[in-house]
Protein backbone atom coordinates (compact mmCIF):
# COMPACT_ATOMS: atom_id res chain seq x y z
CA UNK A 1 0.00 0.00 0.00
CA UNK A 2 2.96 2.32 0.54
CA UNK A 3 3.94 1.85 -3.11
CA UNK A 4 0.82 3.61 -4.40
CA UNK A 5 1.45 7.09 -2.89
CA UNK A 6 5.07 6.81 -4.01
CA UNK A 7 4.00 5.87 -7.51
CA UNK A 8 1.88 9.03 -7.61
CA UNK A 9 4.06 11.42 -5.61
CA UNK A 10 7.58 10.65 -6.81
CA UNK A 11 6.87 11.46 -10.49
CA UNK A 12 5.58 14.86 -9.33
CA UNK A 13 8.80 15.44 -7.39
CA UNK A 14 10.84 14.35 -10.42
CA UNK A 15 9.00 16.51 -12.96
CA UNK A 16 8.96 19.63 -10.78
CA UNK A 17 12.69 19.22 -10.10
CA UNK A 18 13.46 19.08 -13.82
CA UNK A 19 11.15 22.04 -14.47
CA UNK A 20 12.98 24.05 -11.81
CA UNK A 21 16.27 23.34 -13.60
CA UNK A 22 14.67 24.70 -16.79
CA UNK A 23 13.52 27.84 -14.94
CA UNK A 24 17.14 28.94 -14.62
CA UNK A 25 17.38 29.35 -18.43
CA UNK A 26 19.93 26.68 -19.42
CA UNK A 27 20.00 28.25 -22.91
CA UNK A 28 22.13 30.98 -21.31
CA UNK A 29 24.33 28.47 -19.50
CA UNK A 30 23.13 29.59 -16.07
CA UNK A 31 21.26 26.55 -14.84
CA UNK A 32 23.14 24.72 -12.10
CA UNK A 33 24.75 22.47 -13.15
CA UNK A 34 25.15 24.02 -16.58
CA UNK A 35 27.31 21.40 -18.30
CA UNK A 36 25.30 18.17 -18.04
CA UNK A 37 26.33 16.54 -21.32
CA UNK A 38 23.84 14.06 -22.73
CA UNK A 39 21.54 14.67 -19.75
CA UNK A 40 20.67 18.10 -21.17
CA UNK A 41 16.94 18.58 -21.64
CA UNK A 42 15.35 20.24 -24.68
CA UNK A 43 15.28 23.99 -24.09
CA UNK A 44 12.07 25.94 -23.76
CA UNK A 45 11.56 29.49 -22.60
CA UNK A 46 10.37 29.63 -19.00
CA UNK A 47 7.07 31.59 -18.91
CA UNK A 48 6.47 34.75 -16.90
CA UNK A 49 2.83 33.92 -16.26
CA UNK A 50 1.44 32.93 -13.87
CA UNK A 51 3.77 34.86 -11.58
CA UNK A 52 3.61 32.08 -8.96
CA UNK A 53 4.74 29.32 -11.34
CA UNK A 54 8.25 28.84 -9.88
CA UNK A 55 6.81 29.15 -6.40
CA UNK A 56 4.49 26.25 -7.23
CA UNK A 57 7.05 23.96 -8.88
CA UNK A 58 9.76 24.54 -6.28
CA UNK A 59 7.27 24.34 -3.41
CA UNK A 60 5.99 21.00 -4.70
CA UNK A 61 9.48 19.67 -5.30
CA UNK A 62 10.73 20.49 -1.80
CA UNK A 63 7.47 20.21 0.15
CA UNK A 64 6.14 17.01 -1.39
CA UNK A 65 9.61 15.49 -1.33
CA UNK A 66 9.80 16.04 2.44
CA UNK A 67 6.23 14.84 3.03
CA UNK A 68 7.02 11.56 1.26
CA UNK A 69 10.07 10.82 3.44
CA UNK A 70 8.08 8.80 6.06
CA UNK A 71 6.46 6.81 3.25
CA UNK A 72 9.84 6.17 1.63
CA UNK A 73 11.30 4.95 4.93
CA UNK A 74 8.33 2.65 5.51
CA UNK A 75 8.68 1.21 2.03
CA UNK A 76 12.42 0.74 2.45
CA UNK A 77 11.79 -1.14 5.70
CA UNK A 78 9.89 -3.74 3.69
CA UNK A 79 12.26 -4.06 0.73
CA UNK A 80 15.77 -3.69 2.21
CA UNK A 81 15.88 -7.39 3.29
CA UNK A 82 15.55 -8.18 -0.40
CA UNK A 83 19.00 -6.66 -0.97
CA UNK A 84 20.66 -9.19 1.31
CA UNK A 85 19.22 -12.40 -0.11
CA UNK A 86 21.22 -14.82 -2.22
CA UNK A 87 22.24 -14.23 -5.84
CA UNK A 88 19.24 -13.65 -8.13
CA UNK A 89 18.21 -16.52 -10.37
CA UNK A 90 17.77 -15.61 -14.00
CA UNK A 91 18.19 -12.35 -15.96
CA UNK A 92 14.79 -10.93 -14.97
CA UNK A 93 15.49 -11.34 -11.23
CA UNK A 94 19.00 -9.91 -11.75
CA UNK A 95 17.54 -6.86 -13.50
CA UNK A 96 14.99 -6.48 -10.72
CA UNK A 97 17.75 -6.64 -8.09
CA UNK A 98 19.83 -4.05 -9.95
CA UNK A 99 16.87 -1.69 -10.24
CA UNK A 100 16.20 -2.12 -6.52
CA UNK A 101 19.82 -1.35 -5.55
CA UNK A 102 19.90 1.79 -7.70
CA UNK A 103 16.42 2.78 -6.54
CA UNK A 104 17.24 2.51 -2.83
CA UNK A 105 20.66 4.09 -3.18
CA UNK A 106 19.38 6.86 -5.44
CA UNK A 107 16.47 7.92 -3.28
CA UNK A 108 18.51 7.84 -0.07
CA UNK A 109 21.20 9.99 -1.70
CA UNK A 110 18.65 12.48 -3.01
CA UNK A 111 16.84 12.74 0.34
CA UNK A 112 19.95 13.13 2.48
CA UNK A 113 21.75 15.63 0.25
CA UNK A 114 18.53 17.54 -0.44
CA UNK A 115 17.65 17.94 3.23
CA UNK A 116 21.21 18.98 4.12
CA UNK A 117 21.26 21.57 1.37
CA UNK A 118 17.96 23.04 2.57
CA UNK A 119 19.19 23.44 6.11
CA UNK A 120 22.86 24.34 5.71
CA UNK A 121 25.12 26.40 3.46
CA UNK A 122 27.43 24.33 1.27
CA UNK A 123 28.34 21.57 3.72
CA UNK A 124 29.50 19.25 0.95
CA UNK A 125 33.00 18.72 -0.34
CA UNK A 126 31.54 18.49 -3.85
CA UNK A 127 29.04 20.37 -5.97
CA UNK A 128 25.64 19.61 -4.47
CA UNK A 129 23.84 20.74 -7.62
CA UNK A 130 25.80 18.50 -9.98
CA UNK A 131 25.60 15.52 -7.63
CA UNK A 132 21.87 16.03 -7.00
CA UNK A 133 21.16 16.37 -10.72
CA UNK A 134 23.13 13.27 -11.73
CA UNK A 135 21.76 11.35 -8.74
CA UNK A 136 18.25 12.29 -9.82
CA UNK A 137 18.78 10.76 -13.25
CA UNK A 138 20.15 7.55 -11.70
CA UNK A 139 17.05 7.39 -9.53
CA UNK A 140 14.74 8.20 -12.46
CA UNK A 141 16.19 5.37 -14.57
CA UNK A 142 15.92 2.91 -11.67
CA UNK A 143 12.41 4.09 -10.81
CA UNK A 144 11.12 3.65 -14.37
CA UNK A 145 12.74 0.23 -14.67
CA UNK A 146 11.39 -0.91 -11.29
CA UNK A 147 7.87 0.28 -12.09
CA UNK A 148 7.91 -1.58 -15.40
CA UNK A 149 9.02 -4.75 -13.63
CA UNK A 150 6.79 -4.54 -10.56
CA UNK A 151 3.64 -2.69 -11.65
CA UNK A 152 1.71 -5.88 -12.50
CA UNK A 153 2.58 -7.32 -9.07
CA UNK A 154 1.48 -4.13 -7.30
CA UNK A 155 -1.82 -4.03 -9.20
CA UNK A 156 -2.56 -7.67 -8.35
CA UNK A 157 -1.72 -7.06 -4.69
CA UNK A 158 -4.01 -4.04 -4.43
CA UNK A 159 -6.87 -5.90 -6.09
CA UNK A 160 -6.43 -8.96 -3.86
CA UNK A 161 -7.66 -7.24 -0.71
CA UNK A 162 -10.08 -4.60 0.49
CA UNK A 163 -8.59 -1.52 2.13
CA UNK A 164 -11.72 -1.07 4.24
CA UNK A 165 -11.48 -4.65 5.50
CA UNK A 166 -7.80 -4.24 6.31
CA UNK A 167 -8.51 -1.06 8.28
CA UNK A 168 -11.15 -2.87 10.32
CA UNK A 169 -8.96 -5.86 11.16
CA UNK A 170 -7.95 -5.85 14.88
CA UNK A 171 -4.57 -6.96 16.16
CA UNK A 172 -5.99 -10.29 17.31
CA UNK A 173 -7.02 -11.09 13.73
CA UNK A 174 -3.84 -9.75 12.10
CA UNK A 175 -1.89 -12.61 10.55
CA UNK A 176 1.37 -12.70 8.58
CA UNK A 177 1.28 -12.50 4.82
CA UNK A 178 1.39 -15.85 3.05
CA UNK A 179 4.73 -16.77 1.44
CA UNK A 180 5.28 -15.09 -1.92
CA UNK A 181 7.46 -15.92 -4.89
CA UNK A 182 9.34 -12.60 -4.57
CA UNK A 183 10.72 -13.39 -1.12
CA UNK A 184 9.45 -10.26 0.61
CA UNK A 185 7.66 -12.21 3.34
CA UNK A 186 9.83 -13.44 6.21
CA UNK A 187 9.92 -17.28 6.32
CA UNK A 188 9.44 -17.30 10.11
CA UNK A 189 7.79 -13.98 11.09
CA UNK A 190 7.42 -12.86 14.69
CA UNK A 191 3.92 -12.40 16.11
CA UNK A 192 2.38 -9.09 14.95
CA UNK A 193 2.67 -6.14 17.34
CA UNK A 194 0.73 -3.66 15.23
CA UNK A 195 -2.26 -3.84 12.93
CA UNK A 196 -1.99 -2.80 9.31
CA UNK A 197 -4.32 0.03 10.27
CA UNK A 198 -1.82 1.11 12.89
CA UNK A 199 1.07 0.96 10.39
CA UNK A 200 -0.84 3.09 7.91
CA UNK A 201 -1.78 5.56 10.65
CA UNK A 202 1.83 5.79 11.85
CA UNK A 203 3.24 6.47 8.40
CA UNK A 204 0.35 8.68 7.33
CA UNK A 205 0.54 10.63 10.59
CA UNK A 206 4.26 11.12 10.06
CA UNK A 207 3.66 12.47 6.57
CA UNK A 208 0.95 14.84 7.85
CA UNK A 209 3.25 16.03 10.64
CA UNK A 210 6.02 16.83 8.16
CA UNK A 211 3.46 18.65 6.01
CA UNK A 212 2.31 20.72 8.99
CA UNK A 213 5.83 21.91 9.83
CA UNK A 214 6.89 22.41 6.20
CA UNK A 215 4.10 23.97 4.14
CA UNK A 216 4.31 27.33 5.89
CA UNK A 217 7.66 28.06 4.26
CA UNK A 218 6.05 27.91 0.79
CA UNK A 219 2.60 29.31 1.57
CA UNK A 220 3.98 32.11 3.78
CA UNK A 221 1.70 34.67 5.39
CA UNK A 222 0.21 33.65 8.72
CA UNK A 223 1.40 30.07 8.20
CA UNK A 224 5.05 31.12 8.08
CA UNK A 225 5.57 30.66 11.88
CA UNK A 226 4.44 27.03 11.56
CA UNK A 227 7.42 26.22 9.31
CA UNK A 228 9.64 24.70 11.98
CA UNK A 229 11.99 23.30 9.34
CA UNK A 230 12.89 26.73 8.03
CA UNK A 231 15.53 26.49 5.31
CA UNK A 232 18.84 27.68 6.72
CA UNK A 233 17.01 29.69 9.37
CA UNK A 234 16.96 32.79 7.19
CA UNK A 235 14.46 34.95 9.03
CA UNK A 236 14.63 38.43 10.49
CA UNK A 237 16.05 38.40 14.01
CA UNK A 238 13.48 39.40 16.68
CA UNK A 239 15.70 42.25 17.88
CA UNK A 240 16.43 43.52 14.36
CA UNK A 241 15.29 46.99 13.32
CA UNK A 242 13.48 45.27 10.41
CA UNK A 243 11.42 42.97 12.65
CA UNK A 244 7.74 43.61 12.03
CA UNK A 245 8.51 46.19 9.35
CA UNK A 246 8.04 46.24 5.57
CA UNK A 247 11.39 44.50 5.01
CA UNK A 248 10.60 41.73 7.48
CA UNK A 249 10.51 38.71 5.17
CA UNK A 250 12.97 35.90 4.40
CA UNK A 251 16.27 36.45 2.67
CA UNK A 252 18.59 33.83 1.23
CA UNK A 253 21.78 35.85 1.43
CA UNK A 254 22.23 38.91 3.65
CA UNK A 255 24.29 41.96 2.74
CA UNK A 256 27.01 40.91 5.17
CA UNK A 257 27.03 37.33 3.86
CA UNK A 258 27.44 38.61 0.30
CA UNK A 259 30.85 40.00 1.16
CA UNK A 260 30.09 43.38 -0.40
CA UNK A 261 32.11 46.21 1.11
CA UNK A 262 29.89 48.82 2.76
CA UNK A 263 31.64 51.52 0.69
CA UNK A 264 30.36 49.86 -2.52
CA UNK A 265 26.82 51.08 -1.80
CA UNK A 266 26.85 54.81 -1.09
CA UNK A 267 24.65 57.83 -1.75
CA UNK A 268 26.57 58.27 -4.99
CA UNK A 269 25.25 55.00 -6.41
CA UNK A 270 24.05 55.11 -10.01
CA UNK A 271 22.68 52.58 -12.48
CA UNK A 272 24.37 52.15 -15.86
CA UNK A 273 22.34 51.03 -18.87
CA UNK A 274 24.33 49.49 -21.71
CA UNK A 275 23.42 48.19 -25.14
CA UNK A 276 22.33 51.42 -26.82
CA UNK A 277 24.36 53.95 -28.83
CA UNK A 278 26.11 55.02 -25.61
CA UNK A 279 25.91 54.12 -21.92
CA UNK A 280 23.15 55.82 -19.93
CA UNK A 281 23.79 56.71 -16.29
CA UNK A 282 20.80 57.06 -13.95
CA UNK A 283 21.02 58.15 -10.35
CA UNK A 284 18.32 57.35 -7.80
CA UNK A 285 16.68 60.72 -8.38
CA UNK A 286 16.53 60.00 -12.12
CA UNK A 287 14.94 56.60 -11.50
CA UNK A 288 12.46 58.11 -9.03
CA UNK A 289 11.44 60.66 -11.68
CA UNK A 290 10.55 57.91 -14.17
CA UNK A 291 7.05 56.34 -14.22
CA UNK A 292 6.71 54.06 -11.21
CA UNK A 293 4.89 50.74 -11.23
CA UNK A 294 3.72 48.63 -8.29
CA UNK A 295 3.18 44.87 -8.46
CA UNK A 296 2.48 42.15 -5.93
CA UNK A 297 4.90 39.36 -6.75
CA UNK A 298 6.25 36.29 -4.99
CA UNK A 299 9.92 35.62 -4.58
CA UNK A 300 10.74 31.93 -4.33
CA UNK A 301 14.03 30.30 -3.45
CA UNK A 302 15.51 26.99 -4.53
CA UNK A 303 15.59 25.97 -0.84
CA UNK A 304 11.79 25.85 -0.90
CA UNK A 305 10.69 29.04 0.88
CA UNK A 306 8.72 31.78 -0.81
CA UNK A 307 7.12 35.06 0.14
CA UNK A 308 4.81 37.49 -1.65
CA UNK A 309 5.48 41.22 -1.28
CA UNK A 310 4.42 44.47 -2.93
CA UNK A 311 7.24 45.91 -5.02
CA UNK A 312 7.55 49.39 -6.54
CA UNK A 313 10.02 50.59 -9.12
CA UNK A 314 10.69 51.21 -12.79
CA UNK A 315 9.59 48.70 -15.41
CA UNK A 316 12.51 46.95 -17.10
CA UNK A 317 10.96 47.65 -20.47
CA UNK A 318 11.00 51.39 -19.68
CA UNK A 319 14.67 51.11 -18.84
CA UNK A 320 15.23 49.33 -22.16
CA UNK A 321 13.65 52.30 -23.95
CA UNK A 322 15.82 54.67 -21.93
CA UNK A 323 18.89 52.66 -22.96
CA UNK A 324 17.92 52.93 -26.64
CA UNK A 325 16.99 49.25 -27.05
CA UNK A 326 13.16 49.20 -27.00
CA UNK A 327 12.96 45.57 -28.24
CA UNK A 328 15.81 43.74 -26.51
CA UNK A 329 16.40 40.08 -27.24
CA UNK A 330 17.61 39.63 -23.67
CA UNK A 331 19.21 41.53 -20.80
CA UNK A 332 22.12 40.86 -18.48
CA UNK A 333 21.76 42.24 -14.96
CA UNK A 334 24.94 42.75 -12.93
CA UNK A 335 25.38 43.30 -9.21
CA UNK A 336 28.14 44.88 -7.15
CA UNK A 337 28.41 41.44 -5.59
CA UNK A 338 31.04 39.03 -6.86
CA UNK A 339 30.63 35.31 -7.31
CA UNK A 340 28.29 32.92 -9.13
CA UNK A 341 25.14 34.98 -8.52
CA UNK A 342 26.59 38.37 -9.44
CA UNK A 343 24.79 38.33 -12.80
CA UNK A 344 21.67 36.91 -14.39
CA UNK A 345 20.51 36.89 -17.98
CA UNK A 346 16.82 37.47 -18.67
CA UNK A 347 14.83 36.44 -21.71
CA UNK A 348 12.97 38.93 -23.87
CA UNK A 349 9.64 37.95 -22.30
CA UNK A 350 11.06 38.47 -18.82
CA UNK A 351 12.39 41.93 -19.72
CA UNK A 352 9.20 43.09 -21.42
CA UNK A 353 6.68 41.64 -18.95
CA UNK A 354 4.58 44.50 -17.52
CA UNK A 355 5.36 43.54 -13.91
CA UNK A 356 9.13 43.07 -14.37
CA UNK A 357 10.74 45.78 -12.27
CA UNK A 358 13.92 47.34 -11.09
CA UNK A 359 12.48 47.74 -7.61
CA UNK A 360 13.61 50.40 -5.16
CA UNK A 361 10.78 49.95 -2.66
CA UNK A 362 9.00 47.04 -1.04
CA UNK A 363 5.72 47.29 0.85
CA UNK A 364 5.86 51.09 0.57
CA UNK A 365 9.32 51.45 2.11
CA UNK A 366 12.85 51.73 0.80
CA UNK A 367 14.60 48.40 0.29
CA UNK A 368 16.85 47.35 3.14
CA UNK A 369 20.42 46.38 2.33
CA UNK A 370 19.62 42.71 2.91
CA UNK A 371 16.90 42.91 0.27
CA UNK A 372 18.99 44.68 -2.34
CA UNK A 373 19.24 48.40 -1.56
CA UNK A 374 19.53 50.57 -3.56
CA UNK A 375 17.81 48.57 -6.31
CA UNK A 376 17.05 44.98 -7.24
CA UNK A 377 15.34 43.12 -10.03
CA UNK A 378 12.01 41.40 -9.42
CA UNK A 379 10.51 39.39 -12.30
CA UNK A 380 7.36 37.21 -12.33
CA UNK A 381 8.00 33.45 -12.01
CA UNK A 382 11.78 33.92 -11.89
CA UNK A 383 13.87 31.87 -9.42
CA UNK A 384 14.75 34.02 -6.43
CA UNK A 385 18.51 33.98 -6.94
CA UNK A 386 18.09 35.49 -10.42
CA UNK A 387 16.13 38.42 -9.01
CA UNK A 388 19.52 40.11 -8.72
CA UNK A 389 20.15 42.39 -5.75
CA UNK A 390 22.44 45.44 -5.47
CA UNK A 391 22.17 46.10 -9.21
CA UNK A 392 24.67 48.46 -10.87
CA UNK A 393 24.53 47.56 -14.59
CA UNK A 394 21.82 46.34 -16.95
CA UNK A 395 22.93 45.46 -20.47
CA UNK A 396 20.13 45.18 -23.02
CA UNK A 397 21.12 42.93 -25.90
CA UNK A 398 19.76 43.10 -29.42
CA UNK A 399 20.63 39.49 -30.29
Automatic annotation (TrEMBL):
Gene Ontology MF annotations: oxidoreductase activity
Domain named Oxidoreductase molybdopterin-binding is located at 266-397
What InterPro entries does the database record attribute to this sequence?
Answer: Mopterin_OxRdtase_euk, OxRdtase_Mopterin-bd_dom, OxRdtase_Mopterin-bd_sf
Q: Which UniProt keywords apply?
A: Membrane, Transmembrane, Transmembrane helix
Membrane-spanning residues: 59-77, 98-120, 126-149, 199-219
Which Gene3D superfamilies did the record assign?
Oxidoreductase, molybdopterin-binding domain
The protein in question is named DMSO/TMAO reductase YedYZ molybdopterin-dependent catalytic subunit
Amino acid sequence: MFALPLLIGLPIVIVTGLLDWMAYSPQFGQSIPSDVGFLRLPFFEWPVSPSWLFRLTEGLHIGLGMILVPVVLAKLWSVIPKLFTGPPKGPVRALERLSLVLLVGGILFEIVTGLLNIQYDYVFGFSFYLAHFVGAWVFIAAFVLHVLLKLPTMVRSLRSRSLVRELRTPLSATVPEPPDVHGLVAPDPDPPTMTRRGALALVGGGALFVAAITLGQTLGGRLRPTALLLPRGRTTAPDSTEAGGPNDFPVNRTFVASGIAAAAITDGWALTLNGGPSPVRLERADLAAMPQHTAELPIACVEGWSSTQTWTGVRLRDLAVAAGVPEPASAVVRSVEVGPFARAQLTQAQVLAPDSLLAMQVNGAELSRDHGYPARVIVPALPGVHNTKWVVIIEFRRV
